[in-house]
Amino acid sequence: MSNVSHLWAIFLGTFIGLLPIINPLAAGPTFLAITDGDSEERRSRQALKGCFYMVCILVSFLIGGTFLMNFFGISIPGLRIAGGIMLTGIGMNMLSTARDGLSDREQNAAALQKPDISFSPLAMPMLSGPGSIAVTLGFTSLADDWLDYVAIIAGIVCVALLTYIVLRLSSRLVRFIGPVGVNAMTKIMGFLIMAIGVQFVVNGVLGIATDPELLRGIRNVLAGR
Questions:
Q1: What single DSSP character describes residue 98?
Q2: Tell me, what CATH number does 184's domain have?
Q3: Please, are residues 179 and 67 in contact by the beta-carbon 8 Å criterion?
Q4: What is the pTM for the complete model shown?
Q5: Measured between alpha carbons, how far is 49 from 69 in angstroms, rounded to an integer?
Q6: Domain count of the chain?
Q7: Which residues form the domain of 70?
Q8: Are the beta carbons of 64 and 140 closer than 8 angstroms?
Q9: Tens digits of pLDDT across the chain (225 residues)
Q10: Cα(19)–Cα(35) distance, rounded to whole angstroms?
Q11: Distance (Å, rounded) from C-alpha 203 to C-alpha 137?
């Protein structure tokens, strides 16, 4: 039973950790802009493909995360601290005052010229950007066996399904919530991302401070005195 609770905790942690970063509500208006003039059928197809690509990207980083960490000599605490700093920065940007939107308009205009926007810019970097990739890599530190990876992948898939539903309903949601509501949701998500980022940094620092080799070295130094 404890194993089931552990898997459930990993699943919920993945879902709750990724959802504020992917932030489907904030992606909705941009998705509407870059699919302007498309039929509802084409929009549905683009949203489905974009969410599928998002799952593929995040699962690829999840599976290859351990290899990348070993190859570059990155420790789990170091990964958590780096990911936490990145997430804190993303959250601060979301909480800051609204930008003039010029770069967004330029990106949208470029996207309108593309026959297919499902991979770029929808899947990358809108849905599976650096923040969500950093969180996914961070979850590799929680996986001890293949069942843990299955739980993490299940969390990613559930976020993708929810994102697809929100993108499909984005035109109705934006009209219902309005610009003020979207801005408020973005700030709430930004605060949650900041909290997750700070917690990642705290966990990383605690991991370094409680490292057995470090504690052994400190004891040896004190004993030498």
A1: P
A2: 1.20.1250
A3: no
A4: 0.66
A5: 29
A6: 1
A7: 2-224
A8: no
A9: 467 888 898 899 899 889 888 888 778 877 876 776 678 888 899 999 999 999 999 999 888 876 777 777 777 677 678 767 876 776 787 677 544 444 555 555 544 555 677 887 788 877 887 678 878 877 877 777 888 999 999 999 999 999 999 999 887 776 777 767 767 766 776 787 688 778 878 888 888 888 777 777 777 777 765
A10: 23
A11: 15
